Amino acid sequence: MERTLSLIKPDGVEKGLIGEVIKRFEKSNLKIVAMKKLHLTQTEAEGFYAVHKERPFFGSLVEFMTSGPIVALVLEGDNAIKRNRDIMGATNKDEAEEGTIRKDFATNIEKNVVHGSDAPETAVTEICYFFNSFEIAC
Ligand code: CMP
To answer: Is 91 in the pocket of ligand 1 (CB under 6 A)?
Structure first.
């Protein structure tokens, strides 16, 4: 059993895709063990994406991620990290497989609807960034 963090980004919320994204997770047997809607501050978005702070797109990414509310979820299941990434598709929608969330709904490489943890260590860090132990139901 593995856990991963998923974010439905401001573009996904704005486009009314919360239900569609959750439906895809549940159809794939990824169990939602925590979920909340929130609006990130600049400091919170910069902290979450600190690993990218030297990248040229960092400022734009932080502006985008603070532009509206997001939904944060903890998904649980066998191989949850990879399975979530398969459901999301590649970061760049032009490289994403048919039938993935990003292929179906992303606007561009930045406004790509969802985020998912990329490895076990980052999953733990990212889950703890958004949730405390009392907010995760097993
Ligand atoms: P995510 O999976 O959340 O991880 C980092 C985010 O930065 C990524 O999705 C995109 O939203 C954004 N991103 C990654 N690469 C680029 C890029 N080349 N240009 C703009 N935004 C990017």
So the answer is: yes
